[in-house]
Specification:
Elements (H helix, E strand, L loop, with lengths): L2 H27 L6 H5 L6 H8 L2 H24 L3 H18 L21 H14 L8 H6 L36
Length: 186
């Protein structure tokens, strides 16, 4: 990978990491935050499941903790490049759940209006796709704490010279000795 590409991927990983970390910390430090309203307002394929979870105070408490701490740990992992691949997978799962709870499909109305106008693709889906790119092109073994924990990634070897010449042909076999001529001795 070229420097610019690597730098862009590291920046993408860190920006998404910051977003997750900030969202997690905002939830952890706000004693009034709860996922209950989001779950009650869920629509789409899994709306009934999410609304059912919202009906259980124990489930909401567990979801709140998992959501806030999960966002925080995913953010730390991506931002610092520490266990970045598992963090990316966890982030993809979280974003997929957010998307499935509130898909931007025609005909669905939500209590909380969206920041913009969306049709099928929203910011959640875009961030999910960006995390798939981060997962597909890992950078934390080169620029992240994964390098210290697991060692640097092996550099790919690139050929800068011509390929090696073809192997020499096997040596020719010596010609067999000619048949001895019959000499007539007189």
């Amino acid at each position: 990978m070229q420097r610019f590409q690597t730098g862009a991927l590291v920046a993408l990983r860190m920006l998404i990491g910051w977003h997750f970390l900030y969202e997690g910390l905002a939830k952890l430090t706000n004693p009034y935050w709860t996922s209950a309203g989001y779950l009650v307002d869920a629509q789409g394929w899994f709306g009934g499941l999410f609304a059912g979870l919202a009906a259980s105070p124990e489930a909401v408490t567990a979801i709140d903790a998992a959501n806030a701490w999960g966002l925080t740990f995913v953010g730390i992992g991506l931002l610092l490049g520490l266990l970045a691949r598992p963090a990316a997978v966890a982030g993809i799962v979280a974003l997929a759940l957010y998307y499935l709870a509130a898909p931007p499909f025609p005909g669905l109305e939500y209590a909380m209006p969206a920041e913009g106008s969306y049709l099928i693709v929203n910011k959640v889906l875009v961030e999910l796709a960006a995390l798939v790119v981060v997962l597909a092109f890992p950078t934390s073994r080169r620029y992240g704490l994964d390098r210290l924990v697991f060692g640097p990634v092996a550099e790919a070897t690139t050929r800068t010279s011509a390929p090696p010449a073809a192997a020499p042909a096997p040596a020719a076999r010596p010609a067999p000795d000619p048949e001895p001529s019959e000499e007539v001795h007189a």
